[in-house]
C-alpha cells in the first residue's frame, strides 16, 4: 500500500464524520477518531501528541480500532475502508 492509499482511508473516515455530525468542530473530529492521538497527563488534562513522524498506515489502524469510530459506524463500513486500502 502507498501512503496516498492510507491517507485516502483516513480521509474517508473523517469525511463520513463531517457528514454524519455537522455540529462537531474539526478538532473534535480529529480527537474523537484518534486521528490525533493523545494522553491524559498527571493533572487530568488531555494532551495531544504530534504524529509528525507517524506513517498513515499506523494512523488508519489506530482510527479503525477507536471505540468512537466503531460505535458511530458499522463494522462493515470500517472493513470496507480497510479493504479499499488493502
Shape: globular
The largest beta-sheet arranges its strands as 1-2
* Series of secondary-structure elements, N-terminal to C-terminal: HHEEHHH
What's the count of strands? 2
Percent strand equals: 5-15%
* Strand-pairing-aware structural class: mainly alpha
State the end-to-end CA separation. Answer: 6 Å
> How many structural domains are formed by the residues?
1
Note the main sheet.
2 strands, antiparallel
Poorly predicted tracts of residues: none
The mean pLDDT is 89
Tally of helical runs: 5
Rg: 13 Å
The helical percent reads 55-70%
Explain this structure to me?
The structure is a single chain. The protein has 86 residues and is mainly alpha-helical. It has one domain. 59% of the residues lie in helices and 7% in strands. The protein has helices at residues 3-20, 26-32, 56-64, 67-72, 75-85; strands at 38-40, 46-48. The protein has a two-stranded antiparallel ribbon with strand order 1-2. The N and C termini lie close together (6 Å).
